[in-house]
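Re: weekly structure request thread

Next one in the queue (109 aa):
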Amino acid sequence: MDSLDCKKLRITLKAYESNLLIDSCQQIIDVTSDVVNEETKIVGPIPLPTKRRVYCVLRSTHVNKDAREHFEIRTHKRIIDVYNPTSDFLKNLRTLDISAGVDVEVTNF
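Done, posted below.
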């Protein structure tokens, strides 16, 4: 069993649509659970607070300042922690095909 130098691997996923994010988290756990041994432990997905960005736009220019529209963007975020990952785990993680609307960031500690 080939163990890496890092003790913990953190996978951060961000998306505007929560359904895509949930599907991607489940896909990561399903594909990587095949190579998990007794030493490797997967924790998550851990939901983080949703960030809400609200934009206020005037409906018409120069007049009718009272007429405004509000738009918002919600960013959903999840974290998956992997303790003692193996090289087979990383190989399966690299070959995984994630949806286009999901941003994946992998960091090691």
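The two ends are 20 Å apart (CA to CA). The chain has two helices and four strands.
Next request, please.
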